[in-house]
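INFO batch 0412 | record 1 of 1 | parsing
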Amino acid sequence: KDIDADELDVYPQGTIPSGTHDIETLDPGATPPSDTTSTSPLIAIARQDDHLAKRAKTIPSVDDDLFYSPEDIAAPDFGNDENVPFVAPDNWLNDICTVILEEADLGESNSRRVSPIALVRCSRGGKTRAMMEIMTSIRQRNNSYSILYISLNTDTPLPKVNSTHKQDPLAELCIRIAFCALKNGQPGNRQKFEEFSETHSVDENWVKCWLKQKKCILFIDELNLLQESMDEKMANFLKTNFLLEEGRGLVFSSHVASISRKLATFMSSPSNREVITSALPLIPSLQTARKKLEWPNLSAREALYLGLIPGLLVEKKWHREPTTRREQAVQDYIQSIGDDTEKSVTLLLSTLLTGNVDSVDKHLQELMTADIAQDDKTTILRWIPFHMHYVLKQISQQCLVVPAETRDCYTAISDLFQQFAVAKGQSGDAWEALFLIVLIVRCLSSKFDKNVLPLAGGNLRVKYNIPYCGSDFFTDNPKEFIEGIPEDGQSVISIYYPGSAKIEAYDIILAAWNSRGKRSLYGYQLKEGKASTKGYALEEYFQRSFLIRGKASLKKNRVKLWSAVSDSDLDTFFGESAVHWSAKAWKNLQVG
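INFO prediction complete | emitting tokens
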């Protein structure tokens, strides 16, 4: 069915190779004929891929002694991760297992829809390890449930999609369920899986007959790899066999948060069905991470730079950084945006502030982490500085259609992420870097803030450290520095950061020229702690001067002509991601 003519091998009557069967009519328990000839009509056999033997696949019988029954399947194998400590808050594992078992214990009713559980985390972020811990814990808490674990990556990867192989998502799930039950399957043996999948065909009916009425929870690792081919047939298979019946559950992991919405859409008819997205654990404190990972000199900012993600911390410690997959994700993103590069990157930058899943390209979602909003339980994407440092560096170097001054801004953000990670404690450099990252992003995306960045209008070009016409960019004299900023300009924002050579009392200066060419100057002084400023703001030069303190006061006030930004206003300015990397956050991590 639905096979193109050029995908067929046609064997004339009487010349069918030994072991060839018509898949459409083969009974599950039928015995293959032993003769090498046949008098049956022409049989067309679809080639699954170029390397597969030209023979039809055998449909195994569920009664064969080849398979374990669901309750006899062995516990999952931790492999090389068994000796790596699992880092999570004390109650995380217990809480997620409770949710999974509650959903599995429920039967479908008109008032309650049983939900699948999604575990979303970036590439190499520890999803598989967390899933292994969950499966082990559930087996210990309630051994009446069979645990089925299948993976779409690592040792049972999906075949490459090409002109002769079109991905069938339902078939890919079914063959892996059968393989996990295979007595000599040796989970983790890629060769065994390939041999089994190339010679056997397993469908939904086989899985249903094999499961019978047994209680079980299906765990699917990296379901996102089927996102492009996911269809209603596959979703209905999961819903019918692992959600509708009491005693059935479904848990899956994904690099991307958008898959939950797509799966829910396919499962929705005839009723809405929520996918419960669970945030995977972050390190609960610096002290815990140092102890469990045996990393005594791990700094709070380095942990934040890695997103507080235990998996990334382990990879970093063991020098196994996920370079190849990250490189491919960035290249796929750059190729996908085409002529709309600047617009697409601006939308991407805005997600630092908004966390909007729909504004992040699917290729880059796997380089971010998902969290759950406390108020409405929606999914929020958060940046991981370690990954976004690389992403923006590559965009600035490769996307040459973007104006040079804009690419300079991308480079500046990338470099500032690095400064954030390596800055010495109490130097103030990390605090300045973080504030600058958000300031540049807000200017590029025209997301101004009345309490910290009181600009108006849109479509303003943004520049970093240019134009400057003075003789000494690193002067400590504010008047001399301001004289080097041109009076003339139009619809431009320029952000100046001399770095370690500080202008007296000012760390950052922002110049904005409106559409009529009028220039306005804004100054920022940053203090990592709660210290106040020593000097007065220069009102004769600046439209406004802001005091940005890591330990800000509860209410905004005026200090020596400076506008001291309040704690809540500063949190709003930082947005959904950066608020979790602030000076307040890294100090809380140190004492947590």
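INFO post-check: The two ends are 61 Å apart (CA to CA).
INFO record closed
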